[in-house]
Amino acid sequence: AQSVTQLDSHVSVSEGTPVLLRCNYSSSYSTSLFWYVQHPNKGLQLLLKYTSAATLVKGINGFEAEFKKSETSFHLTKPSAHMSDAAEYFCVVIPSGSARQLTFGSGTQLTVLP
Amino acid sequence: NAGVTQTPKFRVLKTGQSMTLLCAQDMNHEYMYWYRQDPGMGLRLIHYSVGEGTTAKGEVPDGYNVSRLKKQNFLLGLESAAPSQTSVYFCASTSDYGYTFGSGTRLTVV
């Protein structure tokens, strides 16, 4: 069974408008959840991490994500998109009982239009 | 600077050739991982290690071998490269405080 599903492979928004990147996870997996960002031809950068301390997690560059156990969702949002936000975003989980290996979603490519 | 260093950064191989990718970390992390990244598929785990002298298979281990003879190094080997192994390879390590990724190795098999 897919442990983490990113519901949109591509999202386009206009600069200054809100961003919503959707992620659902399997409830049989760990509740350690992450969002990573990868800019073109670059490495991976951690945006934010959920570890059950608070359901609303704030990350870098104005991004935040809300953990909703009842919906098994961990959607990433930002109130106002900037051109520099154009990148690929990955929702990531750690399977329960694993050797801490990260399991990645298939990614969402965010395009920001001027 | 402390971190994860991958060598080489780029490589072109002919089908059937062999090569080794080196991942080195200087943070004394126990856990190390090799991933491959392909378009539309995210990162998939190839092999991992939970400590010096240990290795285990991940999601896509076929065609790869690994070794962790020293705690700081995790080697990924391709014995007989195939075009399907064209990909970007990332190494990562972790402690209790977070994950650190290398900058990637772009491998093309022709």
Describe this structure in words.
The complex is a heterodimer of chains A (114) and B (110). Helices cover 0% and strands 49% of the residues of chain A. Chain A has no helices and 12 strands. In chain A, strands 2, 5, 6, 10, 11 and 12 form a 6-stranded mixed sheet that branches. The relative contact order of chain A is 0.33. Chain B is an all-beta fold. Chains A and B meet through β6 and β11 of A and β4, β5 and β9 of B.
Short description:
The complex is a heterodimer of chains A (114) and B (110). Chain A is an all-beta fold and 114 residues long. Chain A contains no helices and 12 strands.
Largest sheet of chain B: 7 strands, mixed
- Following the backbone from N to C, one meets helices and strands of chain B in this order, namely EEEEEEEEEEE
Over the alpha carbons, how many angstroms does the gyration radius of chain A reach?
Answer: 13 Å
Major sheet size, sense and barrel closure of chain A: 6 strands, mixed
Shape of chain A: globular
